[in-house]
Here is the input.
Amino acid sequence: MRYAVFSDVHGNLEALGAVLDFCHASRVDGHICCGDVVGYGPNPEECLGLIRQLKNLHIVCGNHDLAVIGRIDVEWFNPYARAATLWTRAALSDGSRLYLENLTARLDLPDFTVVHGTPRRPADEYMLSVAQFKNNMSRVKAWPLFCGHSHMPVSFHCTAEGKVETYFIEDHQCVTGDVAPYGIVPVAYNPGSVGQPRDHDKRASCALWDREARTFQVFRFAYDVAATQAKIRSAGLPEYLALRLAYGQ
Ligand code: ZN
Here is the structure.
């Protein structure tokens, strides 16, 4: 069984289109979305519409999704994120708002776990360090853990000796930190960001997880960044949100 794993779409329809074309061509059996479908980008409604139709979809909400529906105070956000949140609030239909309101921040499934940030603080803690991974290990029942939020394709893997190794995962690189018995070895995978990569590679990022082979492979896709930038500008969203897409940061 193969799953497409993706995160942090952030209302970027051109980037999402590139990723979903690949998912369809790869004939995946299911989809795992680690949250933040909306916020920052100019097409939140359209992105939600596409994602809601995906088969066998396992999705959690992220901090931007929660801010848009008023469950996180935008005063905590930087000015660009705050402006985008308020714009997105006005751009969403009632149906999309309701969909976001019904998302959970954490999914505990028999074969894997999904959060946006970390198991300890699913919506908003960044999983960036070995210490954070270790501190969160006891809170996971089924491995692997899939997370997003940092917008970086990365893995954390606890070896048999109890040492945690981390890897930044390059385009087409396949990692497997997860040997039998399935679901026991602590390993976390972040597929990077579809709509706003921050690893200095502007291409949209996603991954395929093969449940039986226990592999996680990252893929990057060029998309029409200029088209997304033009939409950001014509929507009146902050210029910085358009510029950063060209640099992948
Ligand atoms: Zn995000």
